[in-house]
Amino acid sequence: MITQPGSTRGVIDWNSFSIGKNRSVTFDNGSGANGATGDLSIASNLRWHRPASLTLAAYHNVSVAPGTTIANKGAGNLTLRADASAIDNGGSVINGGTVDWSKSTGIVSALYDMNGTYTPGTLSNLTPNYDAVFGDICTNSVVRDANVTQTTTFFDNGTAILAIQNHGTVTNVFTSGAIAVPNNGAGNTFAGLVATNSGLIACSGSSATVLADGSVGGLVLSNQGTITESYATGSVTGLSSHGPAGGLVDSNTGTITQSFASGPVLSNTVRGGICTSCTGLGTDVYWDVQTTRQASSGGNLPASNGLTTAQMSNPASFVGWDFGPNGVWVMPAGATHPVLAWQVALSKLLKRRMTRFFIMTSTLGNDTGDTASRKP
After folding, report:
1. How far is Cα 72 from Cα 99, in angstroms, rounded to an integer?
2. Is there a domain that residue 20 lies in?
3. Residue of 130, 113, 68, 127 lying closest to 95 (CA atoms)
4. H helices then E strands: how many in the chain?
5. Which residues pair with 14 in a beta bridge?
6. How many other C-beta atoms can be found within 10 angstroms of the C-beta atom of residue 253?
7. Is residue 2 part of a domain?
8. CB of 119 within 8 A of CB of 142?
9. How far is 178 from 112, CA to CA, in rounded Å?
10. Poorest-pLDDT segment among 165-169, 180-184, 263-267, 319-323
11. CA-CA distance, 26 to 364, in Å (whole number)?
């Protein structure tokens, strides 16, 4: 099914619509002619069962409104396609809601113009079996404005929730949930955000629980690039005698500035509040000595950079950090550590960007009698 509305705003009501097993539906908002913006926004929850595929294609931008969930239970595929006519119009994919594939074995694809941007938003377990959301973020690529929640706890060795490798830029990204494996003697190595960073990680963080029987890092496993204005608050545990644990990274041969770690760090071998044994830590990097339970950074920082929880709650403790009205950092009332300003402002920003929208209300089922559920 292909629908091509020609106005600047359309309402699609699919309450009585269903698609058969192993079939597909394409929604295409047309050419952007007659004064239309060519943008497509999904502003109502969309859920379906079984291996049926859905493509949401736009002449310009595809966006998912804040508070909106697109989800599949089964083996359904989802394609979000901006610049569907491939005319290099800067079309972007902007997810302000949640794409939940935690109960699906299908594939989610986001296709957009090389001059556009990709805003992943909240991605829930897009790769439920083994790997990260991205295998390799390539040079000149950018992943930004994303909250990624991992709901399973078994991964391949040498990986992380967002990406196995980063050669590009990761900015304004936060991960949560868990990345863990039982102590099986395999020497698995995990991190909360990126396994190996050779590019730039900025204004990003993780609260994910990281647990393995090999090396572990709260944010990054091996940093060979730059990490700045980032943090990790999840617990980090190396289970075995060859399981070193670092609150922020395991190893660092690159540069880390204006960052902190505050999650518990547990290991029977080498461990540190920031890393396990490294150099390249800026003088503006800190860790919470009480919550990490580590008296040493594990790297080249003096003991004075290890702060108490009370000190971590005071912006004045972070020398050179910008807590101003337009600054990078915010100390919420009653908080025990700073958070990034974008985390507070992101939903407002996305709402401002979505000035025109299509409303889709849908119930997608299959020809076996199953029906999808739509929740407001």
Report:
1. 9
2. yes
3. 68
4. 3, 39
5. 362
6. 11
7. yes
8. no
9. 29
10. 180-184
11. 13
Domain co-membership, 101 together with 133 = no
Q: What is the pLDDT of residue 31?
A: 61
* Domain membership flag for residue 343: no
Domain that includes residue 299, residue range: 129-321
Give the distance, in angstroms, between the CA of residue 49 and the centroid of all CA atoms in the same chain: 25
* Cα separation, 333 vs 121, whole angstroms: 25
Q: Which two tokens stand for residue 132?
A: 């990260």
Whether 42 and 165 share a structural domain:
no
Q: How many domains does the chain have?
A: 2
Tell which wins on pLDDT, 322 or 101. 322
CA 319, 322, 324, 330 torsion-angle sign: negative
What pLDDT is recorded for position 115? 63
State CA 229 to chain mean position distance: 16
| Nearest CA among 5, 15, 58 for reference residue 365 | 15
In the predicted model, what is the mean pLDDT of the chain? 80
Mean pLDDT of 100-115: 75
Please check whether residue 309 is in contact with residue 330, taking contact to mean a CB–CB distance below 8 angstroms: no
Tell whether 376 is covered by a domain. no
Rounded to whole angstroms, the Cα distance separating 328 from 115 reads: 26
Task: Single out the residue of 303, 309, 201, 297 nearest to residue 255, CA to CA.
Answer: 201
Same domain, yes or no: 166 and 37: no
| 169, 301: one domain | yes
